[in-house]
């Protein structure tokens, strides 16, 4: 299977089905894709002791990375074979501290696509829907 010949949705579906290997950042961060459809993705994200800042809390970069993955991949689902994207900006609002060892979900949906830009929003939530962080993201589409 040649990932370069797959649409974004096909590639991310193949990732979930373990037909292509996960990106190394998934294991580094503990962030794994679990659901995908056109314009939407969901990741499981679990912070561990390796994500702590000097004060002993989970570093804000953990939430930002999980949400960057989700917001970018939501846009990726809309792309044709051979097309790519890159994050131009991401704005993350932290709502509460990220717990260690608790599975959270980074969900994102596309809110606008043009020829050159994709805009998505994402939320990092727990099983009960409690909001830990919110993000808006703009990606440059590379056609």
General description of the model:
By secondary structure, the chain is of the alpha+beta class. Helices cover 22% and strands 40% of the residues. It has helices at residues 8-16, 24-29, 60-76; strands at residues 31-37, 40-46, 84-94, 103-113, 117-125, 131-142. A six-stranded antiparallel beta sheet has the order 1-2-4-5-6-3. The two termini are 21 Å apart.
What's the topology here?
Layout: H1 8-16, H2 24-29, E1 31-37, E2 40-46, H3 60-76, E3 84-94, E4 103-113, E5 117-125, E6 131-142
Antiparallel strand pairs: 1-2, 2-4, 3-6, 4-5, 5-6
Keywords:
alpha+beta, 3 helices, 6 strands, 40% strand
Brief overview:
With 143 residues, this protein is of the alpha+beta class. The protein is built from three helices and six strands; from the N terminus they run ααββαββββ.
Report mean pLDDT, rounded to a whole number.
96
Sheet/helix structural class: alpha+beta
Give the strand line-up of the largest sheet.
1-2-4-5-6-3
Radius of gyration (CA) equals: 15 Å
**H-E string:** HHEEHEEEE
What is the end-to-end distance?
A: 21 Å
Proportion of residues in helical segments = 10-25%
| Poorly predicted spans | none
Overall shape: globular
**Treating each run of at least 4 consecutive H or I residues as one helix, how many helices?**
3
Strand content: 35-45%
- Summarize the main sheet: 6 strands, antiparallel
SS elements, strand count: 6
